[in-house]
Amino acid sequence: MSTHRSGIAGATRHVLANGMVALIQRNPTTPTVSVRGELRIGAVHEPASQSGLAVFTGAALIRGAGERSYQQIVAETEARGCSVNAGGGLHSSGFGAKALTEDLPLVIEILADMLARPTFPAHEVEKLRAQFLLGLRESEQETGTQASRAARELLYPPEHPYSRLSSGSVATVQDLGRDDLLRFHEGYHPAGGAVAVVGDVEPAAVIELLEQYLGGWARPGEPPALDLAPVPPLETIRRRDIPMAGKVQSDLIWAVHGLRRSDPDFYAAMLANMILGRLGLGGRLGENVREKQGMAYYCYSGLEADVGTGPWSAVAGVNPANVERAIAAVLHEVAQFVAEGPTEQELADARSYLTGSMVLGLETNDGIAGTLLAIERYGLGLDFVERYPAIIEGVSREQIVETARRYLTTDRYVLAVAGPPASGGEGTGA
Fold first, then answer.
1. For the chain, what is the domain count?
2. Domain assignment of residue 84, yes or no
3. Is residue 39 a part of any domain in this protein?
4. Residue 271: which domain range?
5. pLDDT, tens digit, for every residue of 214-247?
6. What pLDDT is recorded for position 230?
7. Within this chain, do residues 192 and 267 fall inside the same structural domain, yes or no?
8. Residue 291 sits in a domain of what CATH number?
9. C-beta contacts of 354-360 below 8 A and 24+ residues apart
10. What's the predicted TM-score (pTM) here?
11. Nearest to residue 223, comparing CAs of 43, 19, 72?
12. Which residues lie closer than 8 Å to 188 by C-beta, 6 or more apart?
């Protein structure tokens, strides 16, 4: 454990000529190397009318890059037993690779081509779009997807990127073409981006390699700004019921506005969320709503805290006949947690789980690379892993109660229910 901690703290941080940050950690215990990176452009930067563009562009990077076709990229990497990947997300677009140490130059070269010189062949874009549309049509028939879409629309104003799913919809993705991908790719900018390389490597040699293949990739100006619209506070209860014929299960999502990753309340909120709906089989929500009352097939909570104020939610899949009782049970558990806070045992278990999972996450090259990226993304400092247990231990029960009371309101929230048609429709109360 201490080896991993001191290892992360001793990682090499180097800024490439183009402004991209390189983070290198030597791990001589394995003959492999993992590469993970991200650029600060994502679905938050796409117009609402082109929802899904960031994800589509990220997925298309591998479909042809530099002098290589998609088939050549796949054949060349598979022949060496390595892999490369890329994809778009909400706030960033990610890329990565896994390889034997001796094949690191090959995967870095291909990744550099994917980032800086994607070709977006028209026939590959068409094939990819067909796959995306098939997946979207399937997901749009799922009660969970419909409830999630509705909850976001209720929680955020239409101009806010959090008001929609980053995967887009059939309506928006079907109109995306090669020109749209080329235009969005123009926003790919190395400055503000980061790449982590972890494995049996020498940091100096990796820096030389990255400078050779990535350092020369330049873009004029600054990376795209992140300009999130302000989120007006909830003043009441907003509910939407989405009738879906032929379904045997209803999905419900209760949600309020959460907080940013940089908020001083973040760690207290993380512990509160862990106790409310994550620990074990789903925290208090899972234990009481699902296990004891048998009200749900699953029930848990989620906290999305990043650059902006993401949702803090409780999610349940229920028998359609139990929807109203399940809603009441979820509200009861949230209200009780707000009123009483965690027990000492719950707090001890949550602290133990969070510190333990941090250690587990550092047992693979990929896990270390992901941790290094997160440290860079949020400006946590390379000694973050060493400080983390003390941070978690330092959150008091009182702070958790105060944070829960500040955010988990049971008189102002949104509620989305998708499932078999029932009496009633869209309303304002639960």
1. 2
2. yes
3. yes
4. 237-419
5. 999 999 889 999 888 889 999 999 999 999 999 9
6. 84
7. no
8. 3.30.830.10
9. 354/270, 354/271, 354/274, 354/392, 355/388, 355/389, 355/392, 358/385, 358/388, 358/389, 359/1, 359/4
10. 0.93
11. 19
12. 39, 41, 93, 115, 116, 219
